[in-house]
Amino acid sequence: MWHPRGVQVTLPLSPDPANGFAAALNQVSAALDAGWLAQAPGLEEGEQKDMVSGIARGIHEKEGRCTPYVLLYSASAHLIHPILKCYLDTKDQIEAFEYAAKFKLDKIPLYDGTDKPARDNSQRAKRNIVTLQRHFGVVFKPNPKYDEAARAAVVARGDIYKVAKDVFVRWIDVKPQADPEPADDKKPAITANGTPTTGVAGSPAPAQAAPGTPDAGRPGMSPAEISVQTRNAFLTRLSEASDSVMLETAIQEIPAFGSILLEQDKAALRTAVSHNRNRLGRPAAK
């Protein structure tokens, strides 16, 4: 059964000899009533997930086309055969696998056989199957084309049944989607002299932060956070001007910061300018 936080566990049952399986049924019902889940959280009906601790790589050749694939081995030690075979037909699929596995595809040894090697203690397994220190998750579901009776018949003839029992659905760890490119009508226009605009014809883009102030903030900061950081740095530079040249330079930059200065800032600026001009021996502004 599954814990609501995603951990799979095996709960012991203690059937009452007098009631037989009815007691076991009551215990399972009690576990479900207590909040245990019959399937892993976040899965659709019929889906299963497992943690992968080993991978092997191969190449499928058909009609002159070569497609890489990976064999996935469960973290459950008693499962020595691969639980899934995943074809990586496109660059995006390869990148998705590498992100989930945190392992580069070309770092996995290329297995030149056509079967699915068992993960045992043989030299063959050690050469071709990579054991991962960090396990990763995969979601799969039953293959509707798989038929157990057909498989038994094929195996009885000594042949290999080629229909997979399960098919890949998705990786547990998925790379976040990048923000889409803005539409052409949303991109900033460019003026005749090459200056970007705000998107409204003739409207210049906001002035860049002055020298000595952050112009882009830390990676991942929102525009609002960058504005606050830039504003605070500018106000600090203005109030801490150590000579009249620095002070006058900062004062001349005030219009460029008009879009991010608050009303209370503007009132405080008048006081700060007057105070600092007096402090530095310059006449106060009239």
Fold and architecture overview:
The chain has helices at residues 21-33, 91-101, 123-128, 148-156, 223-239, 244-252, 263-279; strands spanning 48-62, 65-74, 84-87, 130-142, 166-171. With 286 residues, the protein is α+β, with helices and mostly antiparallel strands. The protein folds into 4 domains: 1-41, no CATH class; 48-171, no CATH class; 179-208, no CATH class; 209-286, no CATH class. α5 (223-239) runs antiparallel to α6. It is elongated.
Name a few traits of the molecule.
286 residues, alpha+beta, 7 helices, elongated
What's the SSE blueprint?
Layout: H1 21-33, E1 48-62, E2 65-74, E3 84-87, H2 91-101, H3 123-128, E4 130-142, H4 148-156, E5 166-171, H5 223-239, H6 244-252, H7 263-279
Antiparallel strand pairs: 1-2, 1-4, 2-3, 4-5
**Principal-axes shape call:** elongated
Mean pLDDT: 75
Could you list the spans in which at least 5 consecutive residues all have pLDDT below 50?
199-226
N to C succession of SSEs: HEEEHHEHEHHH
Question: How would you sum up this structure in a few lines?
Answer:
With 286 residues, the chain is α+β, with helices and mostly antiparallel strands. The chain contains seven helices and five strands, in the order αβββααβαβααα.
